[in-house]
């Protein structure tokens, strides 16, 4: 007998009721059950970070979280970043700075960076480098990723400041 | 940063934003594991837990009984005795006896070798069932050291060279030699392999998603093994999460998954996990060199010898023995070497089989040769750079034919200015203030060193590639190319090439790479060849279509063809922008039934062009770096890194720089961290990312790039040299050079430059002589 549970996930603002086996990972739930294949599995043991998503705003490895653990929580994936066809500022900065090549690790870096940026960091390049060293990229040498995150942090700080003024 | 040229501006040569980016950033890309079919089943490989042994029993009875299991197959279920064929033959070698079987029947030769496949309705159940397959193996003695291989374990023993080497060595003032070893490591792309295969029994057609690199070749192999016509197999274009040489070669799974889809008449999905990937996908790099050089008192090279032991793992796979052949053929590099003899013995051991990894054979050979040059400089009391400058081939000595061949072509070094490039690299380093940084750091007592390496690369391998270009109903331009998208940005590059034929933005161009139905004649993406060869094919096809558009457009405009031009995606009378026809209008005029389409004229606006080339083009470059060694831990920090690279002509400089930077990151990993280790029984010790250490952002410094376009290639109409590998080729050598400079050794004898090695090296006696002896350098 499969050990199944009825869970409710809020993913990118939409509610989903799912029957999940207790051992099914959040990554497989998103990819297989919801068709959100933008979340990628690179190692399935929590090192590479390609599967990073936000769980109630915090970055988690979706390969190390079970789908049932997300019951009643909010999940944000890479599919939730763009507004329609328009990429958000961070996505655009990744492209501008050539911060992606094959793009397989990219959703994980984007979600990791979104979590970091949501803290309103000062974000000098050294700190950004330290933060993004949580994930692995095999194509870019990381330079464009660091530049993109650093630039967007400054832009968002500027906007926040303007809004405050 | 990218720039977006306005309409009408040339696209080639610009930092055009990548066409691939939007779908990849939005999460809309389609990788092999993202493709779904109704009623799909999931395969799981059962792999040998033993490095060498006789298979006594593979019992699947318990696995078959698990609810949800659809099928379990072992070697005895397979048709015939399928083996993985060699794709890249080396003349004079016969490897037939040592090809890898699709599933092991009687003998297993490495941990990870496929023994059975389980298929289930659910991937979790497939994994459960795989664990229920009982395996009984009688263990045999393991061979793990290529240097101890004898008899049948030496699968090839061959040499390359030219000139009278013996005389060169006999008369030389100095003969200097050393041993240099490079450890086993490999590409390890972020996406593990994945195959999704659909099968329609009514038509007998297979739809394959995930075979990205050489799809046309893989289709041919698969058709042969299945005994079906190639036309019944379609390899689809999908995104690929990094290739670097290992992805997309024909592996056992590339037979098994389509074969299972036919057997079960159901779609089958197979997704490799990372633990499998690290033991199943081609390893690379493991070589031991005994290299020696004859020089005169001024350090001029008179002759070069190398005796290489190459560990190829348990079988010969698709690459045959091409990697060691490349090592030998490219070993003299950019230097004036009057006489050369290289020999290699390729050994089979009880480890994962090997193949190419970005800069195959050259990363290893460059490491050996450049360490030897560092040692010569130390022995003769010369400056390392001066020694190199003295021996680099001069511009006027090119082209140069070396009486050797590799990849089936003669080695003909085309144009170049090797000394000029070295000078540009070093003057940039001075501008960046490295000299001061080094001096100040050393004054503070820090253990710092600067390293330099020169390398020669090869690229643009033919013999041919084919491209189709067509105009579509809304006036867009479509390219069906034989290159494949492995993440390098080739869609953008090809779009740039064709966009200039119609003076449009790349936004109006759609590129599909590697779909065998749309382009059955592709040669694939490897050997830094796509921009050069596929790009030249696209250029030819684009020109032909533009010519047809001009011809038909002239009829529509009722003007002679010589009076019309194509500009901004329109055909118009020269100098009269108001009188024009859009590409869509010209397309409509070319449809069947159109009064403009003459009897016997083919409908549509399309052309196929094949570009053929006999010789490769040889890019070259220099790596310069600054490192710091922690005297306590032996840890190496890379502080600064610079690559100077001759690319002939950069179609998209941002993408070239990206290739070089990414290559450096892999080079830092290969030089400092990455190693597939085995214990004494042949059990792999690097099976997770906790043991196989790939560099993170913290280990990779910003990389300065000096992108040179001083020597356009004469072998192709774009003037381009390939750029896929040069970021990696010289990295091991440059980092070793920097480390030896830091800790006061004349040269390093191997990679990786790990803490254990460096702590031991630093603990040795202080005089250079003693260090030479204890390091095993003669």
Give a written overview of the molecule.
- The complex is a heterodimer of chains A (165) and B (778).
- Chain A has helices spanning 26-33, 89-96, 106-117, 125-132, 143-164, and strands at residues 4-11, 14-21, 52-55, 58-61, 74-76.
- Chain A is of the alpha+beta class and 165 residues long.
- The model of chain A has no long low-confidence stretch (mean pLDDT 96).
- Chain B is built from 20 helices and 28 strands.
- Chain B starts with 20 loop residues before the first helix and ends with a helix.
- Helix content of chain B is 28%, strand content 24%.
- With 778 residues, chain B is an alpha+beta fold.
- The chains are: A alpha+beta (165), B alpha+beta (778).
Assign the CATH class of the largest domain in chain A: Alpha Beta
Characterize the largest beta sheet of chain A: strand count, sense, and whether it forms a barrel.
5 strands, mixed
Query: H/E series of chain A, N to C?
Result: EEHEEEHHHH
Give the distance, in angstroms, between the N- and C-terminal Cα atoms of chain A: 61 Å
Q: What is the count of β-strands of chain A? A: 5
Task: Please provide the count of β strands of chain B.
Answer: 28
CATH superfamily descriptor of the largest domain in chain A = Beta-grasp domain
Rg from Cα of chain B: 28 Å
The stretches of 5 or more residues of chain B where confidence is low (pLDDT under 50) are: 768-778
Q: What's the mean pLDDT score of chain A?
A: 96
Query: What is the multimeric organization of the chains shown?
Result: heterodimer
Q: How far is the N terminus from the C terminus of chain B?
A: 49 Å
Class by helix and strand content of chain A? Answer: alpha+beta
Strand order of the largest sheet of chain A: 2-1-5-3-4
Question: What is the CATH fold-level name of the largest domain in chain A?
Answer: Ubiquitin-like (UB roll)
* Proportion of residues in extended strands of chain A: 15-25%
Dominant shape of chain A:
globular
Shape of chain B: globular
- Major sheet of chain B, described briefly? 7 strands, mixed
């Amino acid at each position: 007998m499969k050990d199944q549970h009825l869970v409710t996930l809020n993913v990118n603002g939409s509610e989903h009721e799912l029957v999940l086996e207790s051992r099914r990972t959040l990554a497989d739930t998103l990819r297989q059950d919801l068709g959100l294949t933008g979340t990628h599995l690179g190692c399935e043991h929590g090192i590479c970070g390609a599967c990073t998503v936000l769980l109630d705003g915090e970055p988690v490895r979706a390969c190390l979280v079970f789908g049932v653990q997300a019951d009643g929580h909010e999940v944000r994936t890479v599919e939730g970043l763009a507004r329609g066809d328009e990429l958000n500022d961070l996505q655009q900065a990744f492209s501008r700075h050539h911060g992606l090549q094959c793009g397989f690790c990219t959703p994980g870096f984007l979600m990791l960076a979104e979590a970091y940026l949501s803290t309103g960091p000062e974000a000098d390049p050294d700190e950004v480098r330290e933060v993004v060293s949580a994930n692995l990229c095999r194509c870019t040498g990381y330079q464009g990723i660091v530049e993109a995150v650093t630039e967007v942090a400054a832009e968002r700080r500027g906007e926040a400041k303007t809004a405050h003024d | 940063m990218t720039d977006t040229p306005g309409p009408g501006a040339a696209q080639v040569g610009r930092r055009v934003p990548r066409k691939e980016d939007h779908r990849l950033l939005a999460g809309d890309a389609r990788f092999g594991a993202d493709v779904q079919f109704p009623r799909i089943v999931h395969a799981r490989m059962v792999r040998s837990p033993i490095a060498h042994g006789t298979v006594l029993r593979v019992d699947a009875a318990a696995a078959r009984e698990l609810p949800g299991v659809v099928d379990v197959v072992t070697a005895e279920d397979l048709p015939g005795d399928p083996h993985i064929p060699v794709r890249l033959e080396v003349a004079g070698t016969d490897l037939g006896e040592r090809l890898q079987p699709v599933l092991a029947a009687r003998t297993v030769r490495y941990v990870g070798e496929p023994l059975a496949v389980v298929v289930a309705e659910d991937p979790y159940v497939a994994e459960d069932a795989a664990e229920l397959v009982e395996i009984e193996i009688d263990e045999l003695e393991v061979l793990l050291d290529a240097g101890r291989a004898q008899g049948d374990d030496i699968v090839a023993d061959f040499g390359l060279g030219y000139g009278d080497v013996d005389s060169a060595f006999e008369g030389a003032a100095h003969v200097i030699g050393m041993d240099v070893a490079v450890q086993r490591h490999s590409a390890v792309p972020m996406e593990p392999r994945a195959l999704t295969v659909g099968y329609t029994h009514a038509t007998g057609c297979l739809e394959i998603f995930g075979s990205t690199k050489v799809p046309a070749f893989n289709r041919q192999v698969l058709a042969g093994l299945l005994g079906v016509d190639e036309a019944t197999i379609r390899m689809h274009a999908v995104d690929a999460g990094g290739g670097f040489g290992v992805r997309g070669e024909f592996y056992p799974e590339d037979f098994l998954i389509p074969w299972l889809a036919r057997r079960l008449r159901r779609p089958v999905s197979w997704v490799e996990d990372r633990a499998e990937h690290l033991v199943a996908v081609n390893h690379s790099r493991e070589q031991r060199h005994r290299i020696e050089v004859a020089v005169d008192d001024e350090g001029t090279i008179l002759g070069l010898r190398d005796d290489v032991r190459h560990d190829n793992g348990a079988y010969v796979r698709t690459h045959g023995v091409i990697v060691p052949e490349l090592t030998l053929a490219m070993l003299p590099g950019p230097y004036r070497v009057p006489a050369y003899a290289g020999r290699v013995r390729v050994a089979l051991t009880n480890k994962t089989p090997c193949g190419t990894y970005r800069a195959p054979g050259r990363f290893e050979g460059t490491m050996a040769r450049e360490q030897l040059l560092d040692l010569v400089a130390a022995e003769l009391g010369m400056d390392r750079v001066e020694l190199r400058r003295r021996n680099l081939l001069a511009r006027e000595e090119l082209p140069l034919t070396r009486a050797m061949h590799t990849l089936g072509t003669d080695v003909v070094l085309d144009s170049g200015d090797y000394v000029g490039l070295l000078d540009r690299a070093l003057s940039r380093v001075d501008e960046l203030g490295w000299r001061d940084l080094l001096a100040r750091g050393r004054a503070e007592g820090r253990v710092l060193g600067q390293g330099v390496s020169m390398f020669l690369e090869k690229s643009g391998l033919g013999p041919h590639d084919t491209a189709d270009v067509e105009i579509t109903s809304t006036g867009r331009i479509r390219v069906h190319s034989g290159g494949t998208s492995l993440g390098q940005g080739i869609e953008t590059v090809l779009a740039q090439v064709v966009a200039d034929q119609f003076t449009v933005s790349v936004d109006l161009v759609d590129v599909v790479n590697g779909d065998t139905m749309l382009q059955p004649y592709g040669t694939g993406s490897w050997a830094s060849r796509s921009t050069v060869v596929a790009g030249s094919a696209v250029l030819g096809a684009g020109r032909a279509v533009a010519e047809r558009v001009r011809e038909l457009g002239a009829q529509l405009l009722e003007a002679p063809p010589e009076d019309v031009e194509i500009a901004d995606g329109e055909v118009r009378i020269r100098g009269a922008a108001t009188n024009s026809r859009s590409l869509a209008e010209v397309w409509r005029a070319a449809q069947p039934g159109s009064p403009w389409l003459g009897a016997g004229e083919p409908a549509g606006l399309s052309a196929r062009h094949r570009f053929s080339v006999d010789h490769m083009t040889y890019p070259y470059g220099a790596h310069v770096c600054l490192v710091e060694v922690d005297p306590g831990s032996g840890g190496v920090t890379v502080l600064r890194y610079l690559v100077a690279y001759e690319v002939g002509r950069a179609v998209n400089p941002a993408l070239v720089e990206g290739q070089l930077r990414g290559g450096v990151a892999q080079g830092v990993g290969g030089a400092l961290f990455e190693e597939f280790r085995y214990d004494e029984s042949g059990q792999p010790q690097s099976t997770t990312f906790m043991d196989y250490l790939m560099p993170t952002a913290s280990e990779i410094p910003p990389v300065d790039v000096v992108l040179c376009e001083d020597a356009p290639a004469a072998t192709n109409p774009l003037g381009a040299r390939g750029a896929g590998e040069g970021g990696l080729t010289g990295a091991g050598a440059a980092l070793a050079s920097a480390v030896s400079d830091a800790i006061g050794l004349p040269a390093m004898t191997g990679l990786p430059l790990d803490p254990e090695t460096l702590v031991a090296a630093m603990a040795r006696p202080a005089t250079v002589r003693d260090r030479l002896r204890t390091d095993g350098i003669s």
